[in-house]
Amino acid sequence: MVAENMTARLAEMALGHGDQNRAAHTDISNPDRDGGRYTDDSGAKMKALAWMGKNDVRVIETSKPKIVDDHDVILKVTGSTVCGSDVHLMHGVVVQVEKGDILGHEFCGVVESVGPSITKLAVGDRVVNSFCISCGECSYCKDKLPTACEKTNASTLHAKLYGGRMGGIFGYSHLTGGYAGGQAEYVRIPLAENNLLKIPDNVPDEKALYLSDVLPTSYHSVVYTGVNEGDTVAIWGLGPIGFMACFWAKKKGATRVIGIDSNWRTEYAKSKIPGLETINYATLEFGQTVPTKIHEMVPGGVDVSIDASGGEYAKGWAHKLEMAIGAEQDTSEMINECLYATKKFGRVGIIGDYVGFTNHFNVGALMELGIYLIGCGQAPVQRYWEELLEMVEKGEIDPTIMLTHRFKIDDIAKAYKLQEKREEGLVKCFVETRFSAPRAEGTPELTSL
Ligand SMILES: NC(=O)c1ccc[n+]([C@@H]2O[C@H](COP(=O)([O-])OP(=O)(O)OC[C@H]3O[C@@H](n4cnc5c(N)ncnc54)[C@H](O)[C@@H]3O)[C@@H](O)[C@H]2O)c1
Ligand SMILES: [Zn+2]
Ligand SMILES: [Zn+2]
């Protein structure tokens, strides 16, 4: 994968950066890049989590960022977290991540300074980001599909790999724009009025933070696959995304929701979501598979299956081998399981991340059974976040049901390792900085690692 990363970099150099028509300066993944042109004039320093190589992320000292574009805001970060997607980055499976890139696409904070064209945000506002960066003016952004933004990502390789370039993402490699992330004490927010949502006083950071990704992403997976009253639903992966997708499926009126994983997370999910059924596939009887178990529980199969695991998690040796030698980038095992477990003419959605090609995909099952296979895309956060904030304010959803840990930013590299191993009962963490407010009542105490 490191070799693939190098090849990706060379390919981008050969193809040339597609930087025409950009709405913001991209590829400033650390303020200290390019001879310090993007550092704050005060010379102030900050802590930030940087990718330093495959399986090597570290807290480094770097410079505080400065406003580059008129529509920028500099945010003093009061909360961030680690995402399952960050683990893919740490593993180097996402191409075009470079040494020194600051990671983190989920964060909240206080506006510290604003660029001259900002009118709707003011210094001191409490805000949460959207992981995706919207220009606000292209046809996709106007349509509230900001992850398809045409003007915030200059990666030519992205366009070549997928046939169409997606929008920028904070702290997620140069494939998605090379923006510095918010696992830091400060972060630059380009096009800030499109990409920050004000947090009302009655909502603490520990709840608001998850509007940046987990809540909209899990909600999108359920809305986009058309989960409705009376449906039966199975969801692969009970990390924060799959766990919250189970919650939303229930809230949409699904009669039966089955969450699937291979560890303690099945019990955790069951303890937090009343009526949830689960399958821990590590404990299945000999000869039984996830789909056969689902058919036993719901004869004929479920109406909707959602894959919230991720293409890098091969189960069997064949895919492990093929991935190791670069014969495929993603396993097809979970998608095939979804196909086998879904009733004829049902729906299968993919919200877990997949990056490239896969082998042994059962296209026959897809075609013959008339299954509707839905790529959910990177979730269009801005499409949902106001509606979701309202639900948080009304208490219809409490995002802290997935919050199990609180760490200091100094410990965030260790939190990556916990997230990777899924040990220590970690589902989702809140990472504080020196600017954070005191812990909100009822949320986890600080753990030192
Ligand atoms: N599309 C988007 O907008 C978007 C946004 C955020 C995250 N994601 C992706 O969603 C996925 C889940 O994110 P997360 O933060 O919950 O990650 P996570 O790593 O915490 O959770 C993934 C879970 O899947 C389980 N799993 C692995 N293989 C499995 C299998 N074969 N069957 C069932 N479960 C299996 C793991 O044990 C783990 O509990 C990741 O791939 C992440 O990159 C996508
Ligand atoms: Zn995320
Ligand atoms: Zn746009």
In short:
With 449 residues, the chain is of the alpha/beta class. The protein has helices spanning 2-15, 33-36, 84-90, 139-142, 156-162, 192-195, 205-208, 214-224, 240-251, 265-272, 290-297, 317-324, 333-341, 363-368, 381-394, 412-421, and strands spanning 45-53, 56-63, 73-80, 101-102, 107-114, 126-129, 132-133, 168-169, 186-189, 196-198, 232-236, 256-261, 277-280, 302-307, 342-350, 372-375, 403-408, 428-432.
Could you characterize what this model shows?
Residues 19-40 have a biased composition (Basic and acidic residues). Its cofactor is Zn(2+). InterPro entries: ADH-like_N, ADH_Zn_CS, GroES-like_sf, NAD(P)-bd_dom_sf. Residues 70-201 form the Alcohol dehydrogenase-like N-terminal domain. The protein has helices spanning 2-15, 33-36, 84-90, 139-142, 156-162, 192-195, 205-208, 214-224, 240-251, 265-272, 290-297, 317-324, 333-341, 363-368, 381-394, 412-421; strands spanning 45-53, 56-63, 73-80, 101-102, 107-114, 126-129, 132-133, 168-169, 186-189, 196-198, 232-236, 256-261, 277-280, 302-307, 342-350, 372-375, 403-408, 428-432. With 449 residues, it is of the alpha/beta class. It folds into two domains: 2-213 and 380-432, Quinone Oxidoreductase, Chain A, domain 1 (Alpha-Beta Complex); 217-375, 3-Layer(aba) Sandwich (Rossmann fold). The protein has a six-stranded parallel sheet, sandwiched between helices. A five-stranded antiparallel sheet has the order 9-3-5-6-10. Helix 11 packs parallel to helix 13 (333-341). The longest helix has 14 residues, at 2-15. The chain is globular, with a radius of gyration of 21 Å. The two termini are 29 Å apart. The structure holds nicotinamide-adenine-dinucleotide and zinc ion (2 copies). One zinc ion is lined by residues 134-135, 138, 140-141, 149-151.
